[in-house]
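Just wondering, can you check both lines?
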Amino acid sequence: MKLPGETKRERLIKSKDKAQGYGKDPQTRTIKELLDQGVINLDKPSGPTSHEVVSWVKNILEIRRAGHSGTLDPHVTGVLPTMLGDATRLVQTLLLSGKEYACVMRLHDDVPEKKLRAVMDEFVGVIYQRPPLVSAVKRQVRKRSIYYIEFLEQDGRDVLFIVGCEAGTYIRKLCHDIGEAIGCGAHMYELRRTRSGPFAEDDSLITLHMLKDAYTIYKETGDEKPLRKCIYPMEYALRHLPKIIVKDSAVDALARGASLHAQGISQLETGINKGDMVAVFTHMGEVVSIGRAKMTTDELMSAKEGQALDTVAVVMKPGIYPSAWKKK
C-alpha cells in the first residue's frame, strides 16, 4: 500500500557541477542549529489538542517557534510531524501530503464480513464529503481521494481497517458513510494516524516523555546522542517530494527569492510533472526552497533556459553561499 510521493525515482545528471566547499551537510548540524532547522516525528497522545502538544514541545526545548503539519482531534493519537524554528516554513508541504490511519469502526448491527468488505471496497477512489458539524472548515461538499482501504479484522460489530487518503479526509465521516451504504449505520470508535507524508510509525517516532528526557540529559550532561535520535534535520521532512539539485552559483539568488531557471539545475529526479511540488537542494544536501514545477523532467533536462519552478517557500537564509553577481 503506497501513498502519493512514494514513487521510486532515479537521479539524472544535467551538468557535472560539484559542491564547491560552501554550505554544510545537514547531518553535521549542531544541536543549536537543529533546534532551529529540525523536525520531530512526534507520537501525539490522546487528550490534548495538536496545538497544546506543539506548545509543550516549545517549552521542553526552550524554543520560540514550532508548528505541526495536520491537526489531529484531541482523542486521536499518532504521527504528528513537528517542525522547529525555520523548519516551520516546510509545514505547508506536509499539510497536503497523503495520510494513513488505523481505525476501529463500530457497526450498529451485525454485518457479514463478505458484505462489509464489498461495501468498503466501493469507497476506494474519489469520494464526496461534507465536513462534520464539529470541524474547523466551512461545511461545503468537497472531493477527496481514498487511495486504499485494507480490511484487517472483524470482532463482532467492531471492524479494524487501514485507510490511506488525501489530506483533509474526515475518517469519522467515512465511517458514517460506510455505515449508511451498508444500511445499518456505523461510527468511528478509535483512530490513530500511522503515516503523514514521509513520516511513519517506525524507529523515528518519539513521545513527549522521550523528548523531555533527551533534552534534560543534553542540558545536564552535554550528551547529544539521545536528543539527536529525537530531532532530525528538516530535510528529513521532504523525502516524499521529487528533488532538484542546483549549482552552487544559483543558491544565493534562490535564497533571496529569485525564481529557479533551467540553466541553474545540476541534477534532478525522474517523474516530475507540471504542477508538482518540488524540493530544491544544494549539492551538500541542504534544502534551499520549495516550488511548483513549470516543466516536466524531460523538459527540464533539455531546456537551456526558462523558468523551472514557481517558488512557494524559501527556506535557506541568504549569504551562506556566494553571490554570483556583483553590484556595479
Notes: The domain at 99-196 is CATH 3.30.70.3190 (Alpha-Beta Plaits). The first strand starts at residue 11 and ends at 13. The chain has three domains: 11-25+241-314, 36-95+199-230, 99-196. The chain has a mean pLDDT of 93.
